[in-house]
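hey so i finally got around to running both of the ones u sent me last week. sorry it took forever, my laptop kept dying halfway thru and i had to restart like 3 times lol. anyway pasting them below in the order u listed, first the sequence line then the structure token line for each. didnt double check formatting much so if smth looks off just lmk and ill redo it

first one:
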Amino acid sequence: MRQEKRVAAGVAARVAGIVVAVVVAVTAGLAHSPTARAAGLSIELNKVEDSAGACLGTFVISNGLGHGLDRFSLDLYIFDKDGVVARRVAIDLAPLRSDKTTVTRFPLIQGACDQVGRILVNDIPACRSSDDGAMLDCLSGLTLTSRAGIALTK
């Protein structure tokens, strides 16, 4: 009987160890998963494409702030390949729902996309929580990435 209790206790300890190892592995995998949503606000320039004489930019905005934004606008500057400002774009992207990813597309410049050197997020003039109406500083914690071969900076 004592032998059976020791075997049962050993099996229980091994099972507990395996459960802990699995939980740690799954948690670590989620933390590094490309689908794991980061806290904060992120904007990705996903792609650019020429269309009817203009360069259209497709942006992916992920709101991981934990609350919605009923006001959210961007002040962008588009630079050409020589570093000269080609155009300023002010765009209203509100509302952004809490813990939601949004995709939007709009013209960057009149002309081909190969003329665009980089895009600067100059400011976020409006960023207001839909929960309590508080104005937020969304620029300082903003994460920017680009898959389009054109730098997206702040």
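and the second one:
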Amino acid sequence: MSMFTNQIVPMADRKYKLIPVESIRVLNSRNRDKLQFDDNIRSIESIGLLKPIVVNERKFAAEGFYELVCGEGRFLAHKSLKREKIPAEVINCDQQTALLFSLVENIARVTPNTMWFAREMKRMKDCVRISVKVATDSGSRLPLIGAQRR
């Protein structure tokens, strides 16, 4: 599976499973706001998980674990609640594509033109080495990204 195929996978063709929490490794960790994280834990405890995490099964057969692609906060909340399993969409892609998915999800929640956004854009560029694609996928303009990195 490649992020760059421009194909949307229909819901009926997606693979969902209950994954043991202990068989998941975080691919791209980030810091989180403690108050927001505590709110997320309370929400998951009282309402449940509304959006599955996304894991990559690429290493599962050989190494016995899934790579977490999207949903670290939800994953950590499940661990904090001592839940043994978590609902997940299971994908199979190369590490570069998984990392890009993860980074794009992280920057999707912040306002462009902030230093945090600029740092994440640079991190995406450094990790996947495709600055033009990064700018296009994030909806940003290249001159803006260049100016933020200086």
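quick thing i noticed on the 2nd:
Residues 118 and 148 are 6 Å apart (CA to CA).
anyway thats it, ttyl
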